[in-house]
Amino acid sequence: MATEWVMGLVGGVVIGIAVSLMLLWNGRVTGVSSIVYGVLVPIKGDIAWRWYFIIGLLIGGLSLKITAPELLAAELQTKAWIGSIAGVLVGFGAMLGGGCTSGHGVCGVSRVSPRSIVATIVFMAAGMAAVVLLRKTGLLI
C-alpha cells in the first residue's frame, strides 16, 4: 500500500482535475452544498446535471466500499448525537457562508477569490476551535 502522502497527493490531483472539468464542461463551480440545494429548490432546466453529480458521488462511494472497504473503515470518535448536531451546524454554516468547503476551499481559493479565501480561513479556524473545545469538554476523544 502506498504511503499516506502519496494517497493524499493522488486524491488532490483527482479532485483538482474533477473540479476543473466541471468548470470547463459545465461552466459551474463544484460546490456540493449549492448542487444539493439546487435539487431541493429546483429551477426548471437546471436539475438533471445536479442529480447526475449526486448519483455519481454515491456510486463512487459505493464502489469504493465494495472494492476497498478497508479504506473507509473508521471508528467514530464521538457520540452519534454530536455528529448529528455537527451535520446540522455544517449545513447552516454553508448557507451562512454562501457555500461549503468544496465550493470555497477547493474552487474559490484556486480562483483567488477574496471571499472564498476569507471563508476558508473562517471554516478552518471554526473547525479547529470546535475540536479543541470538544476535546477539552470530553465530548471528543
Automatic annotation (TrEMBL):
Protein location: Cell inner membrane
Major location (coarse): membrane
UniProtKB keywords: Cell inner membrane, Cell membrane, Membrane, Transmembrane, Transmembrane helix, Transport
Record field: transmembrane: 7-27, 47-68, 80-97, 117-134
Membrane topology qualifier: Multi-pass membrane protein
InterPro entries: Sulf_transp_TsuA/YedE
Protein family: Belongs to the TsuA/YedE (TC 9.B.102) family.
Protein name (Swiss-Prot/TrEMBL): YeeE/YedE family protein
